Amino acid sequence: VQESLPDHGPKAIVISSAAKYEGKTLTVAGLAAVAAHEGKKRILAVDLNWFRPTLHTVFGLERTFGMDRIRADAPITDLVQKSPIDRLDVLVAPLPEQNTLETGSDLNLLAEKIIEQTRESYDVTIIDTAPLYPINRRMVDPVVFSRKADGVVLVVLAHETPRRRVKRALIALETSGANVLGVVVNQWERTLA
C-alpha cells in the first residue's frame, strides 16, 4: 500500500469488498495498527459502514454521537476517540437514527466531506466501508466516495467470493475513477470445501 501511494501529503485509503463478511474491518484495524506502530504519524481509522458498523467493537469503543453532529459540521477531531494503540484514533459510526429521511446520495456527500476533513488533522486515514454488493439505498456507497480517496484496497475471502463478483467490483471502482491499489486475499490458506 505504501509503495502505491505518493510520498507526500496526507493519505486516505478505502478498504472495501465485493461481498459482505470478507474481513474488511479486520483489515482496516490491522493496517491502522501497523501504520501507527511504524512512525510518528497520526493515523485515523474511520467506520463508514454506517449500515452495519463493527470497527468500534474491534477497538473496544462505544458509538457516542449521532448524525446530527456530522450534519452540523462538527470538527472530526471532536468526534474521534483514542484507541488503545498510540497515535491511532478511531472515528466510529454514528448512532442509528429512527425515521431518517436521508437518501444514499446525501450520506455519500457526508462521507466525502469526512474524507476531506480527515486530511486536515491526520497523516493517514484508513476507511472501513460497506461491501460494494448488494447495494442498499440506506448505505454509504463505497464506489461513490472512493474517488475522493488516494486508493482502494479490495478484500476477498479465499475460495468463497465468486470471481465474477470480484471482477464486477473492480470494474465498478475503476469506472468511478477510484485508484485501485490491489486486493487482499483473506484466509488464503483455507482449503476448498
Question: In brief, what are we looking at here?
Answer:
With 193 residues, the chain is an alpha/beta fold.
Q: Can you lay out the helices and strands and say which pair or pack?
A:
Elements: E1 11-17, H1 24-38, E2 43-47, H2 55-58, H3 67-71, H4 76-79, E3 81-82, E4 88-91, H5 104-121, E5 124-128, H6 142-145, E6 151-157, H7 163-176, E7 180-186
Parallel strand pairs: 1-5, 1-6, 2-4, 2-5, 6-7
Antiparallel strand pairs: 3-4
Helix content: 25-40%
What would you call the shape?
A: globular
| Parts with pLDDT < 50 across at least 5 consecutive residues | none
Average pLDDT figure: 86
N-to-C series of helices and strands: EHEHHHEEHEHEHE
What is the first-to-last residue Cα distance? Answer: 31 Å
Report the biggest beta sheet as strand number plus sense, adding barrel if it closes: 7 strands, mixed
Strand content: 15-25%
Name the descriptors.
193 residues, 7-stranded mixed sheet
Question: Explain this structure to me?
Answer:
This protein has helices at 24-38, 55-58, 67-71, 76-79, 104-121, 142-145, 163-176, and strands spanning 11-17, 43-47, 81-82, 88-91, 124-128, 151-157, 180-186. By secondary structure, the chain is α/β, with parallel strands linked by helices. The longest helix has 18 residues, at 104-121. The mean pLDDT is 86.
